[in-house]
Design goal:
about 80 residues, alpha/beta, 3 helices
Length: about 80
């Protein structure tokens, strides 16, 4: 891939699913990004498991353009309904 290429993780399946705790597939991919530079990387997840990889994400952010959209789920206290 050429530098400047935009790459998205998690567009159809969350890259931090429960099995990731054991398999470390996403972490190994992030490790590759931590040793390269010049890409645009976006990671879409609803999992707090991403916090496990903050060390790699910091390095990736220094070497690439990194975006990590965050979903915040809330309950309407009056109705008990999810928005």
């Amino acid at each position: 891939m050429k530098p400047g290429t935009k790459i998205a993780l998690g567009t159809s399946t969350d890259p931090f699913q429960p099995l990731e705790r054991k398999q470390l597939i996403t972490r190994s991919l992030l490790d590759v990004f931590a040793h390269t530079s010049g890409f645009g990387l976006g990671i879409l997840t609803k999992s707090t498991l991403i916090l496990r990889d903050v060390d790699l994400l910091k390095e990736i952010a220094r070497r690439h353009k990194l975006t990590v959209p965050v979903t915040v789920t809330m309950i309407d206290r009056e109705t008990g309904a999810h928005p």
